[in-house]
Amino acid sequence: MPFYLKMSGASAPAYLPSVERGLVRASGKITATEVRWLLSTGDWRRMAMGAWFALAVPADEVRDAVVAGMAESHRDDSSLPLAAVSSMLAGSDALGAMEIYLERIVDQPRRDQSFEIVAAAIAHLGGTPQVTPATWAIEAFQELLATAQDLQQTFRSARA
User: Fold this and answer.
1) Which of 96, 102, 108 is nearest to 137 (CA)?
2) Measuring CA to CA, how many Å separate 80 from each of 31, 149, 157, 158?
3) Is the pLDDT of residue 2 over 90?
């Protein structure tokens, strides 16, 4: 609860320094069962945090739930952390979920920034997105991915 506003959407890289200590402390107690539950709720707040906390538990125990969460996400607040984390944990196996997400939001009149950033994730994984992502979207995805990689390393070090 105390982290979701800062760790949702594309804002996570900017806000991570202010919440990292608390996230690491919480990650020491989280279980794969709790991560799977967070990802299955359909609530963007829980799904965003489930994505980040998936980096703290064994990948093979949450990989499928992360990919399923990507396919079920309905807004950028959860889809962007899920795109970064599913790219890391599932690689090209996440492409189908990302494509489902884009298909669902392609015709929305108020399509958010996630459309191009998830397209950048698809391109990063070697897929062919519906649109060619703009440079800003590629950079935003790369920043989210770097944040996820750093956070995973921090979680691993803290749990060791």
Assistant:
1) 102
2) 22, 14, 24, 25
3) no
